[in-house]
Amino acid sequence: xxxxxxxxxxxxxxxxxxxxxxxxxxYTDYVMGWYRQAPGQDRVFVAAFSWSGGKTYYANxxxxxxxxxxxxxxITVYLQMDSLKVEDTGVYYCGAGLxxxxxxxxxxxxxxxxxx
Length: 116
Prior knowledge:
This protein is an all-beta fold. The chain contains no helices and eleven strands. It has strands at 3-6, 8-11, 16-21, 31-37, 43-50, 56-58, 66-71, 76-81, 90-97, 105-106, 110-115. Strands 2, 4, 5, 6, 9, 10 and 11 form a seven-stranded mixed β-sheet that branches. The protein has a four-stranded antiparallel β-sheet with strand order 1-3-8-7, with no helix packed on it. It is globular and about 40 Å long. The protein starts with a strand and ends with a strand.
């Protein structure tokens, strides 16, 4: 299971940072990243980092505001969330798997709440 830290409460326009650590290196064709789930809504993709190629992927609503990065030695990815909006509120789940497919492994989820 992946271990998540970070999240919490922020005002709109503020910043938060999430981290996600894996117990072992992901498969070379895997990505690590986040989905989020707002109350009463489905889980949706947020961002991902390609473990072998170093390419990053973002959902349109967060493009330009969120930045995903990686520390290979720590087998950790980070999600820097800037210019937060109220609609960014939700439970953020770190995961790993093939991009575009159902991911194989997940973290426990962490709450992000953005107030106006």
